[in-house]
Specification:
The complex is a heterodimer of chains A (248) and B (770). Chain A has 248 residues and is an alpha/beta fold. Chain A has a single domain, classed as Class I glutamine amidotransferase (GATase) domain (Rossmann fold, 3-Layer(aba) Sandwich), CATH 3.40.50.880. Helix content of chain A is 21%, strand content 23%. Chain A contains five helices and eleven strands. Chain A has helices spanning 16-25, 68-78, 88-95, 152-160, 222-234, and strands spanning 4-9, 29-34, 45-48, 82-86, 102-104, 112-120, 137-143, 147-149, 164-168, 192-196, 202-205. Chain A has a nine-stranded mixed beta sheet, with helices on both faces. A two-stranded antiparallel ribbon of chain A has the order 5-8. In chain A, 59% of the residues are buried. The model of chain A is unreliable at 241-248 (pLDDT under 50). Chain B is of the alpha+beta class and 770 residues long. Helices cover 34% and strands 23% of the residues of chain B. Chain B has a seven-stranded mixed beta sheet with strand order 8-10-7-11-9-12-13. Chain B has a seven-stranded mixed beta sheet with strand order 23-25-22-26-24-27-28. A six-stranded mixed beta sheet of chain B has the order 1-2-3-6-4-5. In chain B, helix 8 links the parallel strand 4 (120-130) and strand 5. In chain B, helix 18 (483-499) packs parallel to helix 19 (520-540). The radius of gyration of chain B is 27 Å and the shape is globular. Chain B starts with 7 loop residues before the first helix and ends with a helix. Mean pLDDT of chain B is 90; it is low at 397-411. The chains are: A alpha/beta (248), B alpha+beta (770). At the A-B interface, helix 1 and strand 6 of A face helix 8 and helix 10 of B.
Chain lengths: 248, 770
């Protein structure tokens, strides 16, 4: 049986269709989840897609965290469900406190869209286990607020606890730890491109694995991340229908 | 006239003879509201009153054309039950006054033209033109416009995949912001902007109506102005890309569910334009219930409601029984929706204050504020036959063939070709546009195969093997000298850029940016350009499916160079077989197809080095151009081509350098000089290609060229880390030495140095740090 993976669609999401497409390529049955509903329709994992949820008014991700769907996603995550936030989805997760840190405006103060290279710090997570070895992965970034920030103590703790999931690296695979490194597209502290929560079931990253899923589009490295998620989800309990009671 | 107060019609930009024409059509005096409605609908922007007689001469029929000029966008069938919708439009004056919002709403407006047809927008290209990049005001405009295009396009989730950024002194007081959008639709979803069926509901959904953009069409778009006039800012609309994103999804959902009979976006002239155009197309009328229009602010005058250009609004024609379903879709997307009128059978646009009854008739006590035949506002608007006169100081057209001693005309004394090449690659117009396009999301949608940066954009069409190729081009340099040639060259180059990927150009959209049409010289430029556009399109077999005309592009510093911006979309049958411009492999053979002809005027070389007063622009042989494009498509189809680049801005040397920079490998080449080194290396005479082939394919490639009647010569091979071009032949060293021009006989530059110049040129020109 194919595993059902949900993509939450907020008003203003614009890579929701790309995420659905990537999940389908990865062998999942993609399910579109509307932001006004707390019914997660029995999915085994959830993707929060890129875009500008609710127009990103106030602050990226700041309004989306209060949606009925996000309340359900928080409960799903608390119960151990797999959640992957990409770009704006990462911003929503950070705003909701489901992953540590914050995403600030890019150091250049400009939107940046380009191919970047990232490398996994962990190969034993539900989001990375199919990558196989620590190697550079090519995929695009496209964001105005992707500069990863946390205070020094938090950063140290993240490193210590293995919660740093991806870092930006240069063409030779060296981490772009310096915010001013040309391989670091947004000035992220310690070159951090993606992080996990302490329990290891919720992850967020700024680059777009869901756009790098076919060689025709320049890279299919992102498919390794999406397939890792789908494969990991296969053995997991699905979102409980009981949450429907809380739906509007 | 001695009084200081002008009569209302003149304040609104209506001339005395236009007022007479309005009286003729109404059979009475117009009231103030009617006059306001006429003033926006008879503006140049909405009525095409000066350009209509010219535009009628353009070829519009072609293979697969489903919708042509007159609809919101051109639509061409591409097989598999799919069609592509595309159009280019200007937002020049709003961007000059308020660059961020002007550019942003330019993107919003053209996207609405696309999804109004039932197509999902899949790509945007932006063609931008400014004055001196060192000027602080230019930099302010560049920053604002680029941020505006990005701010809107990125949020709405449509990738910006290409375009242009050009600097020329003529745009100093009047920048050009032209935006092209492309959409994809199942053919059976084609939706037309008409209002059929008397009794049907007229439904407005999307944003509320406010006081922004009052008179944008007439005040801004259809008059010359002093730059940066703050009093015009209220006429610039304010965009909300988040609302547009919702509008796209809601509109496509309404179309998919077949809930609407017709759909029109609200752009220039707002409700007045949307109602009169849809009614006129269907031969019906519309009665408008003014009180029902959802408003942003209280106390709005009727004329403000009728002509407001508030953004992100759509007008739908809905059967009464389907309205509940329409309302539900709009509510789901959080969009205000209201019934603002009824379709009638009287052919009139009637504005009522005080409400309509169940049957769409004015309630007792309601007042009719305006009543105008829909035709009078649209298809029967006034047409002006303007005077055209070539400028007295115009150069004589270059005689067919050649000036007697072209080499004598060249400012090439002491020229070092390597230094000139580096200067061209690092110039504001030819250097990398990365600083701009990295601010645009170019891959949202997961369809971008080739984004901005090197050559035409390529998008795959999901669910098929096909791809779409898109480009914009305009040759302003030659256009200033010869508007016929400038327009024809623009079409030829845009089509060539599509053909060299292996794609078949499908059709043309155009944005004609010109000066004040009441000046005979400016109108002559427009007439000549339209003639050139038509001639080139007929030769290449391309239908013109739509576009827009932007006149009055003048400022106190003068008129812009005539700028016919051409957008072309092409179809690749197999997107995996596309060919790019970058050199692919060491050992490949570099072949030049076509041959240089003299004439450096209007080129980037001329802008850099100056040009002799007697020199003219290069000639264009349309038959040669047609053969060249058919040839390269055929050669690619047969698998003979590794890379292909056309010779355009900066000439052959720049085309070769680009192949080297983008391919990360050099080449060792010999170029025969027939005329003079500057003509061969940097001249921009058209109908030439730089192609690389595997050695084993060269004989077949050359044979095919001969069969198409095209000259083709091997220049050398790809490889190494330097671009080396030796000049040979009579026109080169010996002759040059004899003339005492002391031109170096070779160009030899490391590719890394070429790349450095190319990568840093724009940021240096704009004074940016990175």
């Amino acid at each position: 049986m194919t595993v059902r993976v949900g993509v939450v669609v907020f008003p203003g999401s614009n890579r929701d269709r790309d995420a659905l497409h990537a999940l389908e390529l990865a062998g999942a049955e993609p399910v579109s989840l509307w932001h006004e509903s707390a019914d997660l329709q029995g999915v085994a994992a959830i993707v929060l897609p890129g875009g500008f949820a609710y127009g990103d008014y106030l602050r990226a991700g700041a309004i989306a965290r209060f949606s009925p769907a996000m309340r359900a996603v928080s409960a799903f995550a608390a119960a151990g469900g797999l959640v992957l936030g990409i770009c704006n989805g990462f911003q929503v997760l950070a705003e909701a406190g489901l992953v540590p840190g914050a995403l600030l405006r890019n150091r250049s103060l400009r939107f940046v869209c380009r191919q970047v290279t990232i490398a996994p710090e962990r190969l034993d997570t539900p989001f990375t286990h199919l990558i196989g070895e620590r190697r550079p992965l090519r995929m695009p970034v496209a964001h105005g607020e992707g500069c990863y920030y946390a205070d020094e103590a938090t950063l140290d703790a993240l490193e210590r606890d293995g919660q740093v999931l991806f870092r930006y690296v240069d063409d030779d695979g060296r981490p772009a730890l310096d915010p001013d490194d040309p391989a670091n597209p947004n000035g992220s502290l310690r070159g951090i491109a993606g992080v996990m929560n302490a329990a290891g079931n919720v992850a967020g990253l700024m680059p777009h694995p869901e756009t790098a899923v076919e060689p025709l589009l320049g890279s299919d490295d992102g498919l390794l991340i999406i397939r890792s998620l789908v494969e990991s989800a296969a053995g997991r309990p699905v979102a409980g229908r009981k949450l429907e009671a809380g739906a509007r | 006239m001695t009084t200081a107060v002008l009569p209302l019609h003149r304040q609104l930009g209506i001339t005395d003879d236009e007022l007479d024409a309005i009286r003729d059509r109404l059979g009475r005096e117009p009231n103030d509201l009617e006059l306001a409605m006429f003033s926006v609908m008879w503006s140049e922007h909405c009525s095409y009153k000066s350009s209509k007689p010219l535009l009628r001469t353009l070829p519009t029929a072609g293979e697969g054309v489903v919708a042509g000029p007159g609809e919101n966008a051109g639509v061409i069938s591409i097989g598999d039950g799919l069609a592509v919708a595309f159009k280019i439009e200007s937002h020049n004056h709003p961007s000059a006054v308020e660059p961020y919002q002007g550019a942003a709403t330019g993107v919003g407006g053209i996207l609405r033209d696309i999804f109004t047809m039932g197509a999902r927008p899949i790509a945007v290209l932006d063609a931008l033109r400014f004055g001196d990049p060192a000027d602080p005001r230019t930099r302010h405009l560049v920053h604002g416009v680029v941020a505006g295009v990005g701010g809107y396009g990125n949020c709405v989730g449509v990738p910006t995949v290409g375009g242009e950024l050009v600097f020329d002194p003529s745009y100093q007081g009047n920048p050009l912001v032209n935006v092209m959008a492309i959409g994809l639709l199942p053919e059976d979803r084609l939706t037309l902007a008409h209002a059929p069926g008397p009794g049907n509901l007229v439904v407005l959904f999307g944003s509320t109506t406010g006081r922004d953009g009052i008179g944008g069409a007439s005040v801004l778009a259809s008059a010359t102005f002093a730059d940066d006039d703050p009093s015009k800012r209220p006429s610039v609309q304010v965009g909300d890309p988040f609302a547009e994103k919702l509008l796209i999804e809601a509109s496509l959902e309404l179309i998919e569910a077949r809930l609407i009979e017709g759909l029109q976006d609200l752009g220039a002239a707002g409700i007045t334009c949307a109602t009169s155009e849809t009614a006129d197309r269907a031969g019906t009328g519309i009665v408008i219930d003014l009180d029902a229009v959802p408003r942003r602010e209280p106390g709005m005058e009727p004329f403000e409601v009728m002509i407001s250009e508030s953004q992100e609004r759509m007008l739908a024609i809905v059967r009464p029984e389907r309205y509940p379903a329409v309302e539900a879709v709009c509510r789901r997307w959080g969009l205000p929706v209201a019934i603002i009128g009824r379709v009638t059978d009287d052919g009139q646009i009637t504005v009522v204050e005080g409400g309509l009854d169940q049957d769409g008739r004015p309630r007792p006590g309601a007042r009719v504020l305006a009543r105008i035949p829909a035709r009078a506002l649209t298809s029967d608007a006034i047409v002006h036959h303007r005077l055209a006169a070539p400028p007295a100081r115009r150069r004589p057209a270059p005689a067919p063939g050649v000036p007697a001693e072209p080499a004598e005309l060249l400012p090439e004394r002491g020229m070092d070709p390597g230094a000139v090449l580096l200067a061209l690659l690092g110039s504001a117009n030819l250097s990398s546009r990365r600083w701009v396009y990295e601010q645009y999301d170019s891959n949202v949608g997961a369809n971008t195969v080739v984004g901005p940066g090197d050559g035409a954009a390529v998008l795959r069409i999901r669910g098929t093997t096909k791809g779409l190729v898109a480009t914009t081009d305009a040759n302003h340099g030659v256009g200033l000298l010869d508007p016929w040639l400038g327009a024809a060259l623009s079409v030829a180059e845009a089509a060539r850029n599509v053909s060299i990927t292996g794609a078949r150009p499908l059709g043309v959209t155009n944005c004609l940016n010109f000066g004040d049409p009441t000046r005979p010289e400016a109108f002559w430029q427009l007439s000549e350009a339209v003639r050139g556009l038509g001639d080139a399109c007929r030769a290449l077999g391309l239908p013109v499916t739509g576009g827009n005309v932007s006149l009055y592009n003048e400022s106190p510093s003068g008129a812009i160079a005539p700028t016919p911006e051409i957008g072309i979309v092409g179809l690749l049958e197999d997107v995996t077989r596309r060919v790019g411009p970058a050199f692919v492999a060491d050992g490949d053979v570099v072949v030049l197809v076509g041959e240089a002809t003299p004439g450096l005027a209007g080129s980037e070389y001329a802008a850099l080095a100056g040009v002799a007063a007697e020199d003219g622009p290069p000639v264009l042989d349309l038959a040669r151009e047609v053969a060249l494009q058919r040839f390269i498509r055929e050669a690619i189809e047969r698998g003979l081509v590794e890379s292909a680049q056309d010779v355009s801005g900066g000439g052959l040397a720049v085309a070769l350098a680009e192949g080297a920079i983008w391919g990360g490998r050099g080449a060792r080449l010999r170029v025969g000089v027939r005329w003079a080194p500057a003509v061969e290396l940097f001249g921009e005479s058209p109908s030439r290609l730089v192609v690389t082939c595997r050695p084993r394919h060269v004989p077949a490639f050359l044979l095919l060229a001969r069969q198409f009647g095209l000259p083709a010569e091997e220049l050398g091979t790809v490889g190494g880390e330097r671009l080396v071009i030796e000049l040979t032949g009579e026109g080169a060293t010996g002759a040059a030495e004899a003339r005492g021009s002391r031109v170096a006989d070779a160009l030899d530059v490391p590719v890394a140095e070429l790349r450095h110049a190319w990568e840093h040129g724009l940021v240096r020109a704009l004074g940016e740090d990175a």
